[in-house]
Amino acid sequence: MLRLAGYIDAINRGIAQVLRWFALAMVMIQTGIVIGRYVFGVNSIWVQESVLYLHAALFMLAAGFTLLVDKHVRVDIFYAKAAPEIRRRIDIAGHLLLLLPSMAALAWWSWPSVRNSWKILEGPISVGGIEAVFLLKTLIPLFCGLVALQSVAILVRLLAEKDPA
To answer: How confident is the model over 41-72, as pLDDT tens digits?
Structure first.
């Protein structure tokens, strides 16, 4: 099971290695948009939407990696001053009772919209925009899957630790 957790970690690390370039691309494209608009009087909705697509992909697909490196938002009321074993138990409960059910619910309720979007190959958000809203909506189940997989990997490690109680 620990080997499986390692493979899941590798998937999210690999995705993060690609996605980090999305941030640079977003900055470069946005700079080009500003220069194009204010210096040359040129504008493109397609190019503007490309920043939105990159932004969505960056944040939705990097969420699993964020969980892996423990940089996610944590409600820190009891956790910060708790003993390591209490933290371990809080983490296990959080993954089992909150995170995994949330990912399952989000995937379940978003799936009809994603499926319908693929059926009709849903077009652009704005006239002249990127004709691939179906790809944008596909980020939702991918987000759920990557976060849920990373949650499972973390749970495997937490459960493999010895419980002194």
So the answer is: 999 999 999 999 999 999 999 999 999 999 88
Tokens standing for residue 71: 């940089």
Residue 134 in tokens:
């179906």
pTM of the model: 0.90
DSSP per-residue string spanning 19-33? HHHHHHHHHHHHHHH
Residues 38 and 80: their CA atoms lie apart, in Å, by 48
Query: Looking at the predicted structure, is the pLDDT value of residue 83 above 70?
Result: yes
HSE of 138, CA atoms in CB hemisphere, 13 A? 10
Stretch (H or E) spanning 50: helix 45-61
From the number of C-beta atoms within 10 Å of its C-beta (0-12, 13-18, 19+), residue 57 rates as buried
Whole-angstrom Cα distance, residue 93 to residue 38? Answer: 52
